[in-house]
Amino acid sequence: MGVTSESGRIVAGGRKGTYVRLAEGPQERHISRTDLARKPEDLGDPILTVAHLSDMHICDHQSPARVEVLDRLMDPDSTARELIDEIGTYRAQELLTAQVGAAMVEAVNEITEGPVGGGPLDLAIATGDNTDNGQYNELDWYLTLLDGGRLTPDSGDMLHYEGVATLPDKRFWHPQGETYDMRRGDHGFPLVPGLLKAVRRAIDSPGLEVPWLAVNGNHDGLLQGTVPGNTAIGEVAVGDLKAIAMPEHWTDEAKAKLIAGLVSGDPAALAMLAELEPYQVTADRRRRQTTLQEFIDSHVHDEAKPPGHGFRAGGEPYYRYDVNDEVTFVVLDTVNPAGGFQGSLDAEQLEWLDAVLASTDYDERLAVIASHHDVASLTNDMSGAGGTRRVLGDEVEKTVSRHESAVLWLNGHTHRTSVRPRGSWWEVTAPSLIDWPQQGRVVELISDGDVLTIATTMLDHAGPARWSGSIEKVGHLASLSRELAANDWQGPQVPLAEHPAAGTAQDRNVLLHLLDPRA
């Protein structure tokens, strides 16, 4: 069910108490944005059509390396909430990320042509946070979903579920009703018998039918997207103890200090994690932490299209890819290896970016930049042990803006749908596939010779708009995931139509005009 100018948009479809049900609503037509150029009478001919996916967060939701317990600090009744910006280490729908990924693969494969320009789908791009916790099994599941094959999204004891959904803790959702929980009692979350077995069934993914490019994100290599891997973390990930509770003597200030320390890479914060109360689970070596080079090299195999999904074995996490005779993708690595969830570049990569854009200027090509972080999130100046200078958003934006070939920057990270004019080019940020609205985009480049139009169209995964109550098929589970995401109890308490993650009409189905630099 792709949201195009000819089909409906998924909206609130009634309530069961405070719990929102979903339905297919009215169509949403494309809006022209003339911030940078006039709208041409005839948009012209298609140059490129791309499916843009971001923030899939394919998740091993039973892993001991996850710290779901910390997410309680952001619950509406938490006394520590005002001291903390955000956490995001637990979501009710994290059980279902593999099914959502499979449903989005199906949706992309159903695209026959660009909804505005009518050109064939040329490729797809996944702009980071492809995995949730930088684990080997998550990396394997994500690659299998996009390349095609069978995956079993289960770990530890393959016969029994061992995650937080069965803990005697009322703050986690218990879909099978083993114990009372606030999510069902106070928020109307459903009772779903058999779900914990259904989410661990094998999935047969056809894989994307078009070539696809990969981008590194902070969750692809950092613990919970924030903390660099080390020996202690590695041992926890593959071990048999999972944290389930915070010590009673911790004050709100201590809890806030822990979260701030994890974001900043403070070793004292890691020491505090060791104080969390554990319970025993089944150890699993497949949960080991991966390195950045392993993430890169895992994409390089005989069936990968294009080769390496853009990467080279033993190469850098950033690269150039010439799609056709007119368009070049310039893929960046904006993850700071020193830690922290926000991004930046190193000076060497900035120099490389400047040189690549100078080359596309000279060759009169169109340059599409892609990264995980958006420009506003390039604020992470932690230099780490090596003391290397980090380059932040203002400097990166100035470098890009010096080059007339740069027309578009695709990214994600914020889990919010947004579009921004950046002087002579457009920035287009995709929402996530784990939080509401669980969408991607179809992005088209169309030109009449003088004006270049970037058409963006929201794309829903293939799960039905309204969850039927069934858990028999992958699409049913993906549909449930979307509904759970729409009911996040920590999210903005606004009508679903006003939810900031979905953006406004000016951010969704839009025609973004700018002068064609080749004119």
Automatic annotation (TrEMBL):
The keyword Membrane appears for this protein: no
Coiled-coil blocks: none
Domain of life: Bacteria
Keyword Methyltransferase among UniProt keywords: no
Transmembrane intervals: none
Keywords attached to this entry: Hydrolase, Metal-binding
GO molecular function annotation: hydrolase activity; metal ion binding
Gene3D superfamilies in the record: 3.60.21.10
InterPro entries: CNP_phosphodiesterase-III, Metallo-depent_PP-like, Metallophosphoesterase_PPA1498
NCBIfam families assigned to the protein according to its UniProt record, in alphabetical order: P_acnes_RR (TIGR03767)
UniProt-recorded name of the protein: Metallophosphoesterase
